[in-house]
Amino acid sequence: MSTQPTRTIQVAALTRVEGEGALRVVVEGQQVTSVQLAIYEPPRFFEALLRGRPLENTPDITARICGICPVAYQMTAVHALEQALGIHITPEIRLLRRLLYCGEWIESHGVHMHLLHIPDFFGCANSIELARSYPTEVTRGLRIKKLGNRLLELLGGRAVHPISVAVGGFYRPPRKPELLAFREELKAGLADAIAVAHWVFGFTFPEFHRDYEMVALHHPDEYPMNEGRIVSTRHLDISASEFPLHFEERQVPHSTALQCVRLPEATEYFVGPLARINLNRELLSPIARQLADEAFVSWPCFNPYRSIVARAIEVVFAFEEAIRLIDSYDGCSPARIDYTPRAGEGAWATEAPRGLIYHRYQTTDDGKIAHATIVPPTSQNQRQIEQDLTQLLPSILHQSDTEVALACERLIRSYDPCISCSTHFLRLEIERR
């Protein structure tokens, strides 16, 4: 046994992620024997909070799970509840929901790339430092993010925690002239997004490849956002209602967050933009598809550091898709489908910016929530991140404590984790035995 003293590496604050977590690594001699990504924020019990409340409250309550991706929670909730209630929405409502999701992808990807992730590629501690060297590029990224927020305001009533989303449709749909007036700004945003993609394609990426099982929605006719079957790179193909038969959330002692695993072997898996493009590249919009072909990437790609390439391509797609949807929109009447409360059960999955999100609800005959299950993307990626770190660490343990910590942070940030779902702390501790 090694007589070397215990080595402890601490990162007091993992900035540029959302939430609070800690990483503890145990090394026996030269072998990494334990990697624990611990999320230590107090649990917020949203699933329990919903029980007994009117089902109409669900979109507004679940939106509070995250300030960056509230639409993902709202969209998944309303679709699942509509399935439980037997509601069939109109094509116009479906169009508006997809358009709303475009706004969220634009603002969320824009924030992550420019304020959280791109500084890593230039050795910058934060986006302010990045902006000193690349003011034009950071300003461009903020323009993109602002356009995403503007689109959320037009459809949802406000940029954070939209208030127009309702079970059955929208409380207030946008008018055609409102969207048409915004169309030219979206065209300018598309040009900015294309420029960002070309910038990102030229970054230097670490060589790190894993045999991931990547999981995402797939729709036969369109790039997946609000609906589709759950598929994987290992031939999984199921409906959202079958999710509990193939995936299971488990409590781990070192974290207040549940970890989701693939059944029956309880293996890790990967969700997010890289998984979506790997499984749906042929369904991208024309310019986005062309960019994917020009991205210096061999698809399918299994390097998590290149997730930012997938995000850049998806921003271009979201702008293209938003413009197409606005051109197709002629108004929405009725804006909301009437329904009669009933006892039922519904399950649905959509694609949040960070990956697959799953909801299941049981309703009572008087219109209350009897049971709720919410599985966010980060709980699905958490175990995969631990496995990636286990693979990475042996190659970097010869470096200084600071260098090891930065390398771990960089890998974690490539997943764009939403730990509380908006900020800060990773304590990294390495124990050598």
Describe the global form.
globular
- End-to-end span in angstroms? 7 Å
Question: How many individual helices?
Answer: 13
Could you give the order of strands across the largest sheet? 2-1-13
Determine the fraction of residues in helical runs and give it as a percent range.
40-55%
Write down how many β-strands occur, each being a DSSP E stretch of 2 or more residues.
Answer: 13
Secondary-structure content class: alpha+beta
Describe, in short, the structure shown.
The protein has 433 residues and is α+β, with helices and mostly antiparallel strands. The protein is 43% helix and 16% strand. It has a single domain (46-380), classed as Cytochrome-c3 Hydrogenase, chain B.
Give keywords:
three-stranded mixed sheet, Cytochrome-c3 Hydrogenase, chain B, three-stranded antiparallel sheet, globular, alpha+beta
List the helices and strands and how they pair.
Layout lengths: L20 E8 L2 E9 L6 H5 L7 H6 L6 H16 L5 H31 L5 H7 L1 H22 L8 E2 L2 E2 L5 H26 L13 E4 L10 E4 L4 E2 L4 H4 E4 L8 E4 L10 H8 L5 H8 L13 H22 L15 E9 L2 E9 L5 E7 L1 H16 L8 H14 L11 E7 L1
Parallel strand pairs: 1-13
Antiparallel strand pairs: 1-2, 3-4, 5-6, 6-7, 8-9, 10-11, 11-12
Helix pairs in contact: 3-4, 4-5, 4-6, 4-11, 5-6, 6-7, 7-11, 9-11, 10-11
